[in-house]
Amino acid sequence: MFSIEPSPRSANGAGGEAGSDMSEVVLQQAAPLSVAADRTRVLSRLALVDRLFRQVTRAAAVIVLVILGGVIVSLVYGSWPAMKAFGFGFLFSQSWNPVTENFGALPAIYGTVMTSIIAMLIAVPVGLGIAIFLTELCPYVLRRPIGTAIELLAGIPSIIYGIWGLFVLAPFLQSHVQPALIAAFGDIPVFSTLFAGPPYGIGMLTAGFILAIMVLPFIASISRDVFETVPLVLKEAAWGIGATTWEVTRYVVIPYTRVGVIGGVMLGLGRALGETMAVTFVIGNAHKISGSLLAPGTTISATIANEFTEAVGDLYTSALIELGLILFFITFVVLAVARYMLMRIEQKSA
Amino acid sequence: MSLYASRRSANSIATTLCWVAAIFGLAWLFVILGVLLYEGVRGLSPAVFSEMTPPPGSAGGLLNAIAGSLVMTAIGVAVGTPLGMLAGTYMAEYGRHTKLTMVVRFINDILLSAPSIVVGLFVYTILVHPMGHFSAISGAVALALLVVPVVVRTTEDMLLLVPGSMREAATALGAPRAHVVGKVAYRAAKAGLITGVLLAVARVSGETAPLLFTALNNQFWSTDLAAPMASLPVVIFQFALSPYKDWQQLAWTGALLITVAVLALSIAARALSAGRRKSK
């Protein structure tokens, strides 16, 4: 198995000779000089391989860091012309005019944040509900199949959600849900603006809804994992003093796992913010901020996906890369916070 | 209402809501799969696997897109896997408690869920822009960058599961560290390592965003790595947004193919790691 082959002469048990050091004596009852030299050569070769392997793996680990650094540097480099041209105003400008080469990120940032908020408003309660269902309520026979199904669904590529949203969900919302929303909220002050205007089918609300369905399995399966870290004794103690299932969940499980749940939700948020394909299909790609959730809008990732290959001129390309940089920054912060919180719950359960 | 009754009713309201949430959530997911199956199967025919993507208005298949996806995924995985495995090996075997490992683990977890479109922009800036044109090889590099974090994560996790006593036994026999890792730890964690690779393949085979402006698309058969290459996700994206019925049908069929492939890979990965757990 190892390449240390016993040499024939040492197997013959040749007598002791001066020159072999103490450890040799202990190991082999003193080998002749030439055998000692062979051994040294083999051992030093092994030591070399060992050092080499160690350094190679270390280099690979460093490369992972370099990739992240490279992403940041290349994005900053690529967006430099746009930064020079627009400065901080880029973040707050609403214009997006490829002809006059005047660009601003605000509509895209607004769309990204808004669709993610809609998604989280739907996905967090439902996802937590599924997690509670799976850990507290579901019959034991069904727990594993349903849990596995949810985990499998978390792996379905986002383009599938996108194509479904475009062909099935958007027409459905347009003909059934949105007219009802417009009619229902038409006379209530704030809501009449939120749900104003013709039902396009595609738009912010539809995009948010698709995102919600997409991040739902993530939030559900992470929260379930986190809920399962609660020591059984704590729950049993609560049950023992007569607490109902809901009270156990509300006063034992959720307080114990709060940090982890927030981490899982943030992880879902990170995915929602950066999601491209599911949104691009149904957002409508309109560079304006509209008060109505039914109106088409755009997000950072949808803008990049739709316009990058057709962008003419360095400034246009650069503005799109700067959008990418902004997106990377936002998601980096969200994901870093999420990981930090999940790390804390892991330490707690360890 | 007595306290007891109100607690009881609060409990039943809350548990009913959880049931509703579970049914609501699962229903959407099954509706999506159902529609996908219905629309996708309608368009399945031998032509899908034997003909090229058609111009609008005529019949055709997805052969070049399927081949392109396979080629770029294969290269991406072939490049990304060794790098990820080596990095994971360092984190689990050599530098378990070093600062470097902690930083890499944190960064890797972030890369794992970072928006893939940003990876596309990165590869565009370092490869496509200097080369002056879109190419399959830059698409493959973008996919490789998405493979790395998945493999790093699973390699580290799986090697950490290998009992320390096995390493100690090998070390006591005089095996140097590299051999302990290569011939003991890797073997013990083999099923887990393969799972990681399968998961990585599943992850990248549906990726669209990073390919949009690296590999672009190609309506014809191409094996030239320096030229743009078609891929299933990008073809789906283009065809679904087109006004032509034939194209939309092909998009559904392509979507079905990807979903089946991804689900098959994840189920295989699960079966592997489950079998491993049982044997212990």
Task: Give a written overview of the molecule.
The complex is a heterodimer of chains A (350) and B (280). With 350 residues, chain A is an all-alpha fold. Chain A has 14 helices and two strands, in the order ααααββαααααααααα. Chain A has helices at residues 8-11, 22-28, 33-86, 89-92, 106-137, 140-154, 158-185, 189-194, 204-227, 232-240, 245-274, 277-280, 300-307, 314-349, and strands at residues 96-97, 102-103. In chain A, strands 1-2 form a two-stranded antiparallel ribbon. In chain A, a hairpin with a 4-residue loop joins strand 1 (96-97) and strand 2. Mean pLDDT of chain A is 85; it is low at 1-27. By secondary structure, chain B is mainly alpha-helical. Chain B is 78% helix and 0% strand. Chain B has twelve helices and no strands. Chain B has helices spanning 3-42, 46-50, 63-94, 99-113, 116-131, 136-161, 164-172, 177-188, 190-205, 209-212, 232-240, 245-279. The termini of chain B are far apart.
Order of helices and strands of chain A: HHHHEEHHHHHHHHHH
The poorly predicted ranges of chain B are none
| Helix share, percent of chain A | over 70%
Major β-sheet annotation of chain B: none
What is the strand tally of chain B?
A: 0
Rg of chain A is: 30 Å
Order of helices and strands of chain B: HHHHHHHHHHHH
Biggest sheet overview of chain A: 2 strands, antiparallel
Which class do the helix and strand fractions of chain A yield?
mainly alpha
Strand content of chain B: under 5%
Strand content of chain A: under 5%
Q: How many angstroms does the end-to-end distance of chain A come to?
A: 36 Å
Global geometry of chain B: globular
Count of DSSP-assigned helices of chain A? 14
N-to-C span of chain B? 54 Å
Give the mean pLDDT of chain B: 89
Largest interface pair:
A-B, 94 and 95 residues
Weakly predicted, low-confidence segments of chain A: 1-27
Mass-distribution shape of chain A: flat
Oligomeric grouping of the chains: heterodimer
Number of helices of chain B: 12
